[in-house]
Design goal:
This protein is 53% helix and 5% strand. The chain is mainly α and 213 residues long. InterPro entries: Znf_RING (IPR001841), Znf_RING/FYVE/PHD (IPR013083).
Amino acid sequence: MLPLHEVTLSPAPATPAPTLDTPSATIIENFTTVSLFNLLFTLFFRSSYTRLLDSILNLLFIPLGFYFLTLTCLRLILLHPNPNHPNRPNTNLINAHLAQRQQLLSMLSSSSSSARRFARTVVRDEEFTGDDMGDLEENLSDQIVEKCDESTVLALSVKRLGVEGESCVICTEELIDKDVLEIKCGHFACYECQLKWLKEKGKCSVCMVELLE
C-alpha cells in the first residue's frame, strides 16, 4: 500500500483587469452622453415637430383646398350656364336692346347743339323768349312734319295790338305794337310764333282746337 501524501492547493494569483487611463474614460463617457441625448431628441422633439407641422398643414391647406374647389365650381357654373334653364337671359333681347340704345345715342349726337341744350334744360315761362323758340324751331325744321300748309295759316285774321298789355301765349313776350294771328276760338299769339306753331301742330296752343275743323 502506497503512502498517502498531503497536497496543499494554493489559489493562483489573480490577473489584474485592464484599466483605461483617465482621458480615454472621459471621452467614452462624453460620447455615451451625447448619443443618449441625440436619441432622446430624435424620439421626442423631432416627432413633436413633425406632428406640429402636420397640424399646421392640415389647418391651412384643407380649408384653402375646399375654398378653391368651391370657387372653381362656381366659375364653371357661371361661365357655362345651362341653356335650358328658365332664368337664363335671352341674348337676342339683350342685343336688340343694345342696338336700340346705340341708335338713340346716335340720333342725339347728330342733333344740333341748340336742340340738345334745350332738351336738357328746364326753362320757366318767363325765361323762354321768342328768340329761343325761333332758334329751336329753326334747328328742328327738317324733322317736323307740317300739320297745316302755310296758305291755311296765312288765311287767318291778322290784327295789330296796341298797348293793351297782352302777352304771347307761346313765347310770353309783351305784344305791344305787334301783329298777331287770331284763331277762330279767339286766342292769339305773335305772328311768328303762331305761324310756326300752327304749321307744326295744326291746333290752338291754348285750347287745342283743330285749325281745320
